[in-house]
Amino acid sequence: MTRRNGAILQQRIVALIHDRQLAPGAALPTEPMLMDLLGASRNSVREAIQALQALGIVEIRHGHGTFVGSASLDVLSPSLAFRVRSQTPAGIGALHDLVEVRELIEVGLVGQVAGTLSEARLAALDALVSRMDTDLAADRAFHALLYESCGNELVLQLIALFWNVYHELEASLDPPEDRVTEVVANHQRIVDALRGGDATAARDAMRAHFTDVKARVARAHAWAER
After folding, report:
1. Handedness of CA 177, 179, 185, 186 (dihedral sign)
2. Alpha carbons 57 and 69: distance in angstroms, whole number
3. Which residue from 43, 164, 196, 203 has the highest number of Cβ atoms inside 10 Å of its Cβ?
4. Backbone φ and ψ of 63, nearest 5°
5. For the chain, how big is the Rg over CA atoms in Å?
């Protein structure tokens, strides 16, 4: 099967999912049924299903069948990391672009959640900040919890995607221990602004956080160009 024919078959399977309004977790027609519906060979159907599995569009459960997937953005992490890493010098320029996109998203969102977070949620954010000096996962959890109340799953997945790729490549920057105090202070300023319900202060605190991140990227860029 040619690449073009394979892509067309994948599109037809996706169209079938939409036409039948199959939700994530719903079972797809069996392989013989797909062969009949699509007028395609067994190998062609299998190749198309495997390609869609790699994209998270379908999920193969061995012994049970093929089901509609959730198409999580997590599947983009390897390709995005590769794109950033393959840029020169040392992927630093592309890393700056990634951080800038994340900043645009988060500065806008943090102003929206200011004044809307419960004291329990703020206390949970405080607890995560207190762990950031020893637990890298606390940083990721902080940004996820910050926007959880927005109810926008796509936003949460995008932020998680950018965070994962950034921290996968963070080794090219200064050693994390050189900036722990500043990182903790930046995140605490964000929580303090949110606790005060001050949207402007919250956006300013978030910008300051990303100014620090971009400064690290810029230092790494200067070093790579020596």
Report:
1. negative
2. 5
3. 203
4. 90, -10
5. 22
E strands, 31-124, are 58-61, 65-68
Phi, psi of 59 (to 5 degrees): -130, 125
Is the pLDDT reported for residue 28 higher than 60?
yes
The type of residue at 36 is D
Q: Is 175 left (phi over 0), alpha (psi -120 to 50) or beta?
A: beta
CA distance 168 to 153: 22
Q: Which residue has the higher pLDDT, 170 or 190?
A: 190
Whole-angstrom Cα distance, residue 148 to residue 113? 10
The first and second tokens of residue 141, run together, are 């959890």
- Give the residue carrying structure tokens 């996820």: 144
Nearest to 216 by CA among 182, 165, 187, 168: 182
Confidence (pLDDT) at 1: 61
Average of per-residue pLDDT values in the chain? 87
